[in-house]
Amino acid sequence: MHVVLALQDKTGDYSRHAGVTMQSVLENTKEQVCFHLFHDETLSDKNKERFETLCADSGHLMRFHAISLPLAEDTLNAIKYLSMGTLYRLAIADQLEGIDRAIYLDSDIVVTLDLADFYAMDVSDYSIAAVFDKGVQRNPRLYNRYFPVDLKKYFNAGVILFNLAEIRKRHDLFRECMELLQRYPKDPFTDQSALNAVLQDECKMVDDRYNFVPNENSGLSEKKVWHFAGGYKPREARVYLRGANKNFFIVYVLGFLERFWRSRISFSVRWKYRAGGWRY
Q: What is this structure's pTM?
């Protein structure tokens, strides 16, 4: 199974969040996973080593792909508050030469189901499989103010199953998306809108358990792909989670960060790792 993440890490801190996503995949997916990390020169050797160790210790594979974009950082308005790293997934069809399908995951995701079913989904007549973006319903004008997209077909690009073999037959995905981004530099959703403009008519819409945006009332013990695309992130678990929900993210986020990334966590308790999980 091929799983792709992408990042730009100017401060050296963002890698740990990708590590949380990866660890959650490994703890819940039975078959071997080959992770592909799309990155630039901001990824440090130390963090590369951490990613390699994370995979090697559990019998999985890690591959690195250096990405270069034909755009300056000040070209797109949204990059002022996003990151160039969000654009790196556009190169997926070129970078994964010889690979017919891959799952892309954002780094604000915690996976609590086996991704094998999603990976094996029949997309023979489609270029991608993704989940409808419910944000369209709250603010439709924001989503098609610039890009010519159909809001009834608008998917969230945080979790995508790419049928790379089909995409290569139909598109030069990287070139087409980059041309659109240069044509519509003010769009707030950048590459997500570009991907929709190119692929939404070739998208198989799937159940939202594969890309579920939670709130403080969500039952986080359910088996889903939890995507923190809203106003809070897993690393802020202590702020917005209560009771069992907080305990759940202690295992997947706070515990992992302290054990593997050696992050300083300003939490009122101390953690000790045991074979059975994090005790508190």
A: 0.85
